[in-house]
Amino acid sequence: MARVRDDMGDTRWGRLQRWLREGDDSLDRAMIAVWDESAEPEPEPVFTVPPARPEQKKKNQKHTAKLEKLLRVFSVIAAVLLCVGIIGILLHTTALLPSFGREDNPVHNEVPRRYIEKGMNEDTGAVNIVAGMILDYRAFDTLGESNVLFVAVCTVMILLRLQAGDPDERLGSDTRDRLIEPHSDPILQVIARVLIPLILIFGAYVILNGHISPGGGFSGGAIMGAALILHMLAFGEKQTARFFSYRTYRAVSVCALGFYALAKAYSFFTGANHLPSIITIGTPGRIFSAGLIPYLNIAVGLVVCCTMYALFSLFRKGEL
Amino acid sequence: MTVALWQSIPFACILLPLFGAAVCLALPRRLARLWATFLMAAVTCMSLVFLVYMIPFGKSYNYPMGHFPAPFGNELRAGTLEAVLGLLFAGLTLICTLGGSRDAEHDISEGRQGLYHVLLLLMEAAMMAQVYTNDLFTAYVFVEIMTIAGCGLIAVRSEPGRAIVSAMRYMIMNSIGSAMFLLGIILIYDLTGHLLMENLHDSVVQLQAGGQYSQPLTMVVALLCSGLAVKSALFPFHSWVPDAYSTATPASASLLASLVSKSYIIVMLKVVFRILGTDVINAARMDDVFFVFGAAGMLIGSAVAITVPDVRRLVAWSSVAQIGYIFLGLGLHAGDAAVWHILTHAAAKSILFLSLPSLIPAGSDGSLRDLRGAGYRAPLAGVAFTTGALSLIGIPLMGGFITKLTLAQAALGAGGAHMWISLAALVLSTVLNVGYMLRCVLVFYSHPEEDAVPAAAPVRRGFALASVLVVLIAANIALLVFAQPILTAIRSGFAMFD
Asked: Is the whole-model pTM more than 0.90?
């Protein structure tokens, strides 16, 4: 167990304990040490102030320092007042809104009535009305939503994924927080071995039953993503990379989003042109029912799962 | 009702780039660029065909997205205004991407170029969706895609530091705008129970007539309008603009300046004219808010642009002023002037941003001092910049002139203080426009100092940029030649709004 203790000694938790016991500033020192290791030539200042002429410099400095201080005080006060004001106005507005849950509220109009009355038997075939709403009635919005997740991962990849030639790349992984985390912790690994299959099965169940019981692609995908994250934390990213890498992410996202777009394009086009569609709602309650909804749930679930893991992994180590 | 095949074009214009973006991620770098360009060209051709069919069709139509009729499912809607804007957005996306492609290859590291094209395609899909959507929440979803994709397009440049800082500023302001817009949608849904624009309008008119929920309704007006105004960088919310436009790679800068900020204004037009209606907007005095901030933006944006030494920042500041013109048009209830200026500014600003990289010599920070004689070194870019500058100044016979004419007509119609303030702002801002735009042009065509011979440009831009610039010059002239039919189409599009 000595090895584990040593590892613990360098973790955040270990240092926190030492800091509590001994009252030393090892936390700060360790953090500084991490920064020192990464010591590199001072990065160029992001904004350069054009140098003033020497005779004006002294006068300007005094003047601008005073002005800056005034401006800072003013902006803090103004920001606080503005926020308090907006909070007050919004709270006042909330008090004047239709009260919650009353039968004659404007939101209880013909739209939700149709969703509830006809959603299961005539329109979508989904017992879970919410799945029917987001994946059939308003599938276009959900197509947009899954693309929001996709564009978010793409942007994070642009910002954080390390590339050959990036200034950060040669620093390697030594300066990143993941090394402060515990490695190959036996307790975590044993529990993860038991939990991960259960979590994955539960996530798959939530996705596949999305049209029958509460759940669906978004919640099930989040559950499965959590399993992947747990795997990486317990066994390290080398192990996880054996089955989930950038290539996996790419393949899964492309297939899921492409399938979603194509399937819905078919359904939108036939719907708008009043053409007969090969998609039938089937018997509500069966696993193969509700038209496209189960398949779309799977696509959304895969996208969400990949997004969860990709965001975590990119923020942690700049690699997928 | 039978649906003609051409009426499916808006649907295809949205779905095709969305599908293409997912596929694009799987493609290697060069193929990704070809694929993106091919899809953009396809969307542009389809939009052109759509406009050709739409004008004789002469009325708007609704296109359900799925098997369910309007208030239950999502819906698209298209009229002549949407057709004109769709063609503008599709065409300029293609042009900006092509014109900036060589710079993008230079500015963006190899591993990121595939992602860059994914973002461009998603951006195009989102813009088309905002032009054609008939549903407020769909508009919000695609606003989100645009916001995040815009952040990526700014930050994609490989040199770290400035690009990241400007992307962060952009993200902070835009998140505030999105949050306000979303709060507005939540409130209006709570008050009306609808998200479809026609139904929203009917419910809002009823609420207004019955005098119910008047305070929350005012709050809805304020949140929806100011959220979108923050996102489109109206004057006091412009702080991210100069950084973002001047540090992004030219294709991104011209896309963001000429199209992205405009598509929020398209949503704003739909909110003002189709959802809330001018009566509700006037009752909440939102038109005066647009008027005041628009006029202030026109003046202050131009005044700052005069003092800025860096030419890229100068063009960015001029965008702040031009957004002011659009909002002044909204404040004067002249939707046609606002839309016309969206077209003019998009055509002129993209030409400025795309021609600048050829004019700025290598190793220069873009200050005007280094640009002496640039018009001789890069003749086509010089002519292109001059065309754009003249159009924005609004000398007679250019696009900006017609903006100012229609704005002045609207001001004369409004009378009273509105008339005097807007006329004064127009005159003053034109003088300031002349000040900074002609300054650039004069610097480009003055003889360089003998000892300051700049190094050769690191990027060979070649045929792609040249053809794009010629097309853009032609587009600026075409805007002028066809001003009357385009304005007629815009006005008939507004007539279809009711």
From this structure: no
